[in-house]
Every structure is written in structure tokens, then in C-alpha cells.
From TrEMBL:
Taxonomy of the source species: Eukaryota, Metazoa, Ecdysozoa, Nematoda, Chromadorea
Cofactor(s) annotated in UniProt: Zn(2+)
Protein name: Xylose isomerase-like TIM barrel domain-containing protein
Record key words, sorted: DNA damage, DNA repair, Hydrolase, Metal-binding, Zinc
GO process annotations (BP): base-excision repair
Molecular function in Gene Ontology: DNA binding; DNA-(apurinic or apyrimidinic site) endonuclease activity; phosphoric diester hydrolase activity; zinc ion binding
Taxonomic source organism: Caenorhabditis auriculariae
Amino acid sequence: MPSRRKNKRNADINQIEPILEPKRSGKIKTSEPNKEALLEVFAVQKKENTCVDDLKVKVAKDTKGVPSKRKKKIGGEENKIQKEMRESIGKKVLDSVKKSKKLLGVHASAAGGLEQAIFNARAEGCQSFALFLRNQRRWDSKPLEEEVVVNWWKAIKETQFPLERVVPHGSYLMNPGSYDEQTLTKTRVAMLEECQRAEKLGITLYNFHPGSSVGKCTTEECIARCAETIDYVVERTENVIMVVETMAGQGNTIGGKFEELRDIIDKVKNKDRIGVCIDTCHIFAAGYDIRKKESYDDTMRKFGEIVGFEYLKAIHLNDSKADLGSHLDRHENIGKGKLKEETFSHFMNDTRLDGIPMILETPEGMYPEEMILLYELDNN
Ligand SMILES: [Zn+2]
Ligand SMILES: [Zn+2]
């Protein structure tokens, strides 16, 4: 096995503090939140936050917000509802963090502009978040407008949200390991464009699915192509770390085995620019048991030996509707699926996961409640 240089952990775990409001002069108002408006937000979220297996729906909703010329620009500001949520629900979530060093967050909607994802994440008390950087239904996209970039940086300045805790999710159209030259080229162009966007926004991580052989080539060939795709993007960008996600092993997809992720890492030229994301639902469906402390320890030991914790850059916390080894990617709310709360207590109490963005991709807009529940499971 070629030697792998360790890449640096993004955050100094001793410096982790809940993201609180930037200091303002004068008193902070403690007005009662507008309950009707909040209920409305939750109703919208319930509709928007479909299970990730229902990707087409989610993607369609989510990209509604990617700015187009037809849309009236909001101008990079927090709206009234976001402010009320931040001061009520968001505050409750942050209060529940206590001494936890876990950075919980959600997949935030960018409806109304990319910077709106920052405000939406903060409204829910997130300490990390994921978002789509562009229209997920299309291969082509216009270059990032200057106004979008300006609004993003304005929001970052205002919220002081740490950019290393933002983990954009790549388009689901892409297949970085495709046997088909046309698909492969389209994927590489799209992935490069998304990573260039990330860099313009100061984002340092980029999460994506490793792809599928579609039964037209061997797993080894698919892995080799995926690694070449990563090299292609890395050679044309400055610093974004390419974060490959663990998959459920459905059909011909790669990434369902830790060994496959290791093989991708081994083939990639620049080991400083490659990382992995553990998705709890995916690894369980792929056959890695994590329900009891013993099986969790065993699975994480395997991960450490085969992949290495130095490559772990993000976690997706999802319960699973489907059984162990089912190879089905079906997300469920925390504690409501086959994994149950106990599984998540293992993750929440594992100090190796301190300072790593842990993002929920669960259905039905229960994000704040789920984050509070998770923080309660942390015994630190
Ligand atoms: Zn995931
Ligand atoms: Zn999934």
C-alpha cells in the first residue's frame, strides 16, 4: 500500500464553541416568537425535507432557490422568520450543546439564494450544514454570479459561521466512476464547476457519491475512474478536500465497502485533498452493524484500520428504514428506524468524531428536535 500522508483536521477541537450570535451593542430583544410564522416554516419544511431516497423531489424543491435572473434577489439578509427561529428554536438547540464537541447540522435549503442556507442553518441552531451549490437537475450551469458571491460573504461576515463546517453535497446526476466517456466527461466538468464554486465561497470540503459501474465495467475499473476524476478536479482547484461518501452498496454502486474507499484513496495522487464521509444509514444498509456498543466498536475499528480516521471529514447522521445488509438507502428520523437511539449514543460519545461536521439528512423537518435529542445522548 502506498504511504499516505496524514491530512490536518479542520478544526482545533479544543476551540470548539457553539456558534452564538456575533456580539452586538445594546440589549438582545427577547420578544415572543411569532408562533404562526414558525408553524408555517415547519409546515414548509415538512414538505421540503423528504427522505433522501426520494431525491428527485428533494432536489427539485431545493434548487428552486438557486438564484435565476427571473427571481427577485433577497440581498443576503436574514429574514424575519429566520430571526425568530434563531432566537427561539435555534437558541434551544444551541443551549442543548452544553459541553458537547459534536458539530451537528442539517442539509439547509438555499431557497432564495445560496447565502440563505447560512441563515436557515443558523435559525435551526446548526453548528455545521450541507447545501447544494447549484441546480441539481441540470448538467450545465451558468457561472456563479458576482452578486451571489457578495451576498454569501456578507452573510458569513454577519453570522461568523465557520466555513470549514460547511459541507456542500455534489449533484446526484454525476457518476465519477462511469464507464461511459460522455457521462464521465460531463461529470468531471460539473464536479470541477461545483468545486470552483466552493472555493469562491471559501468552502473547504466537497462531499459526493463515488459512483457506479452500472454493471458495464468491473468494480476495480470504476474505482480507478473515480480516483482519476478526483485527480482531475484536484489538479484544477486550490484547496477543496474531495470527500467521498460511504454508500449502501445498492446495485452496482461503489463505496459500500471500506476497502473500496481505501482503494480510491490509494489511487488518488494528492492525499491531502481526499477525505471520506461516513453515512450511518448507508454503512448499516451495506452490512456494518453499529447498533450495540460492541458492534459499533468493531465497525469503527475496521474503519480505522482500512480507511483511517485521519481521512474522516464529515458524518451523515441518519436512521435507517431498511435492515442491516439490505443495501437499501432509506433514511429515517433519528431513533425511529432500525438503528434506534442507542446507535447514535455511540456516535455522540466517540471522541474521535469531535470537531467533525455531523449532518442530518432525515425526513420530515424534525431537525431541531433531533439535534436536541442527539446532544442529550452525549454524556460529556
Ligand atoms: Zn448521506
Ligand atoms: Zn442516502
